[in-house]
Amino acid sequence: MNFYEHTLIARQDTSPSQIKQIQEKYAKIIESNEGNIVKFESWGLMHLSYLIKKNKKGNYLHFKIEGSGKTIQELEKNEKIDKNLLRFLTVKVKKLDLETDYFKKNEDSTKIEK
Fold it and tell me: What is the domain range of residue 7?
């Protein structure tokens, strides 16, 4: 089995319930194709670097997956026809980083020191 990091960007006008449905839909696709979700992160609504299909922002969803190439092929095939998604990216990695939360807000950095 190989390790993958897979990121989806959903449209900015997607409701939280629709985000949950998107997460569940792709989790089922991964698991039905002999894959395993090691970790899921919702990075929230963030600014895009440039306009994508007239959207300035996007809801980011990030999956850390253990699976085969067949799993990723089936996942990407379904994402290509989903109208709620702006972009997706899959990166094959040698080892999954499960400790670091890159987009988690750090409470210490928001405090003002005197």
Answer: 2-95
